[in-house]
Design brief:
Length: 549
């Protein structure tokens, strides 16, 4: 086989509703961009076997082999059984290296993954209905494979993509065996057209959809928004987060917080409240509003079935304590949980999605794109902490790695950490100075399904979407291996921050006990923010030492 080749894969028969010819796309489904991820497994994937597995998955997720179609202002996916392109590239390398060789941590969120994605011809974009809705690329080294996937957002949110990838992984790993998980459904809920009064009431809750720009200008808009920002990344264990949550719940109870017993913040709420607290001690304008991407799949009566292949997401704002700008950590965690709980009621979802669907439908039919702005005083959260991306292992459980890209100003992204590589050092590393870099990043992509629309061209340089985050940095690594546990703290100056608390670890196993957290801030405060996070997480009396508790 040549170093590069392309397969074209069609569904292996019809797996659902053989007479069905189209899948309706209400306005809330019109996320006109691709979600792009990379899975790396420590084996050389057989391209022919991969394509056979893909054909079986497309039999069930048949809409992924369809094409977008607009009919008199209404949108749908025609079930055309069109071929899905699978590019195969063999590289002259012993292993796939995703991140910078100077990085001490195998971060889930990487600056630029374009080389792992299939080429998409800009002249046949999805908006012209001629482009595939799914692309795949296999990059094979001598010992492992990177599987790059470009999934059009109209096919479904991140949870749907995860189910599709689990199906693909299963069929590759278990040829001839039926897949156990629930088969997706394609009956979409059509929310009623909103009244003028409902639009007036709910539009302020959906500013990311109310502000639009011409599609051609979207790259420049994100580029301007990212200008002058730098990345902050840190790692925290679930054990440490649980200790923080327990302390927050106790603080709420001790202050006789109303609803404190009935409405306890989650670990994730406490993590976001912790980050907001750090930011508010260093930003010129403190954060008073946080938006969260939330799923409504489990809200009774709102969707026909929780396994619907679509976008069941809304973006919920939380107003923090206006009297103190930042409030206390415990109070902010409680406010986050209260707003998410309120948002997951049938009445709220019905009204919210009615307005959101109308705004999205109007924008797309007008050739305009919405964008996720970062005005002063606002932070956005889009988390995949609940999604088990590492379960997509293609026969290598516990050793698969997952990557995606994109950072934006005060746009907080959370993922389960990648496993430690088998070659991870088991002895303390010497202090070292890493060389400066200027690796570009890409505009923020949606997680938990809600990706901001973005240009099809993945080259951040050509779109002007560049976030410089490289600095000369002093890194200190401490590892203590003791009775199957370890603790590692990476303390940096103007650099990424990693803190791993105690927890069961072994080289080569999935890191289900920790989370990667990444966001961007103004370059002038980056060193202070990253240093504060490192110091507070490394404190022996964490979380009791945190301000706000």
């Amino acid at each position: 086989m040549d170093n590069a080749s392309t397969y074209h894969v069609k569904p292996n028969g019809v797996g659902f509703a053989p007479d069905c010819q189209r899948v309706a796309l209400p306005g809330f489904e019109l996320w006109m961009n691709y979600i792009e991820n990379v899975h790396v497994v420590p084996q050389c994937i057989d391209p022919s076997r991969f394509c056979a597995a893909l054909a079986l998955s497309l039999q069930v997720f048949r809409h992924a082999a369809g094409q977008l179609h607009r009919n008199d202002g209404e949108w749908e996916i025609l079930l055309t059984d069109s071929p899905v392109p699978v590019e195969v590239e063999r590289i002259d390398a012993n292993a796939i290296r995703v991140g910078d060789d100077t990085e001490a941590v195998d971060w889930v969120i990487q600056p630029n993954l374009k080389r792992f994605y299939a080429h998409r011809d800009a002249s046949s974009s999805s908006s012209t209905h001629t482009a595939p809705l799914l692309y795949a690329k296999l990059t094979l080294s001598r010992s492992d494979t990177a599987i790059g996937v470009s999934w059009h957002h109209t096919l479904g949110d991140a949870s749907v993509l995860l189910h599709f990838m689990q199906s693909l992984s299963h069929h590759y790993s278990n040829p001839g065996k039926t897949l156990g998980p629930t088969v997706p459904t394609f009956t979409k809920r059509a929310f009623p057209r909103p009244t003028k009064s409902l639009i007036h009431e709910y539009t302020p809750l959906i500013p990311h959809l109310a502000q639009t720009c011409p599609e051609a200008e979207l790259g420049a808009v994100y580029g301007a928004m990212s200008h002058g920002t730098s990345r902050v990344a840190f790692r925290i264990t679930l054990d440490r987060l649980e200790r923080l949550r327990s302390r927050v719940v106790a603080a709420l109870a001790s202050h006789h917080h109303s609803e404190g017993e009935q409405l306890k913040p989650s670990r994730h709420d406490c993590l976001i409240a912790f980050i907001v607290g750090v930011l508010n001690r260093h930003l010129h304008v403190p954060i008073t509003t946080v938006t969260n991407v939330a799923s409504y799949r489990s809200v009774p009566g709102v969707v026909h079935h929780s396994a619907v292949a679509g976008n069941a997401i809304c973006i919920i704002p939380t107003t923090l304590d206006p009297s103190t700008a930042s409030g206390t950590l415990a109070d902010n965690a409680h406010r986050l949980r209260a707003s998410l709980t309120t948002a997951r009621t049938p009445a709220f979802v019905e009204a919210y999605m009615s307005v959101a669907s109308n705004l999205m439908h109007t924008a797309v039919n007008s050739g305009r794109a919405w964008w996720f702005a970062a005005p002063p005083g606002r932070a956005s959260v889009n988390s995949n902490a609940a999604l088990a991306w590492h379960s997509v292992h293609f026969g290598c459980p516990g050793r698969a790695r997952f990557y995606t890209s994109g950072t934006n100003d005060r746009y907080i992204r959370v993922f389960r950490s990648n496993p430690d590589p088998p070659s991870a050092p088991q002895t303390p590393a010497a202090d070292r100075v890493l060389c400066p870099s200027s690796t570009p990043t890409e505009p923020a992509e949606a997680l938990e399904g809600a990706a901001p629309p973005r240009p099809d061209d993945r080259d951040p340089g050509s779109q002007g979407c560049v976030t410089a985050f490289g600095f000369a940095r002093l890194e200190t690594t401490r590892r203590l291996s003791r009775a199957g546990t370890h603790r590692r703290a990476v303390l940096t100056a103007a650099a990424d921050v990693t803190v791993d608390g105690p927890g069961p670890r072994s080289a080569g196993t999935t890191t289900t006990d920790s989370l990667d957290v990444v966001f961007a801030v103004a370059s002038g405060v980056r060193a202070a923010v990253s240093g504060a996070i490192a110091a507070e997480l490394a404190a022996p009396d964490f979380p009791d030492s945190l301000p706000g508790l």
